[in-house]
Write a structure and sequence with these properties.
The chain is an alpha/beta fold and about 210 residues long. It is built from 6 helices and 7 strands, in the order αββαβαβαβαββα.
Amino acid sequence: MKLNVFKRFILRIASCVYPVKIFNKENLPQENCVIVCNHFSVIDCLYLAILNKRQNYLILAKKEALKSNVYGKILKGYGAIPIDREKPDLRTLIDLIKFLKNGNNKLLIFPEGTRNKTGTIDIQPLKEGAGVFALKAKCKILPIIIWKKARIFRRNKMIVGTPFELCDFYDKKGNEQDQGKITQLIYDKMVEEQKNLLKLTTKRVKNESNNRKK
């Protein structure tokens, strides 16, 4: 889904209202990949759209999220595809895998399955969908971490992690045990990038503090 002029205009406004500092933008691959990201609010989708506005991507969202008036319209406007988590439509899954195999397409998944409402930044237990798509399409997985829930006119932070592949699982049948290992691997990579974001944020704060003292 390439963004039209109107949607890019909306993103420009959104980036002013919900400013975000993005680290390691150069890690965003040109080729197809599955993007996995932690999830706090609908604004997360706008953060990803700001990062990825010139490339083809879709967002996998639970069907319930698309039924809400505001949240659902924003998601649909930026390429959301509804899916029933209890009884996923096989045709939709096949079409998404084909989409991933084509060119530089990207599929954004919030693998926690729902918004983080715990009041912490801790990454919640993950669902298995992201690993299934990456395995079937044999494409990279790109972990992206958002620091905290978006607040109006308060700068947030986001890090684009290092892409990785599931090469060790390509020749396997993808049984339940393998899926568990893949999901754990994705979780570990997301936690690792969250730690990297903490280091970058801490370093930035120290540098700003030192500059003020000079």
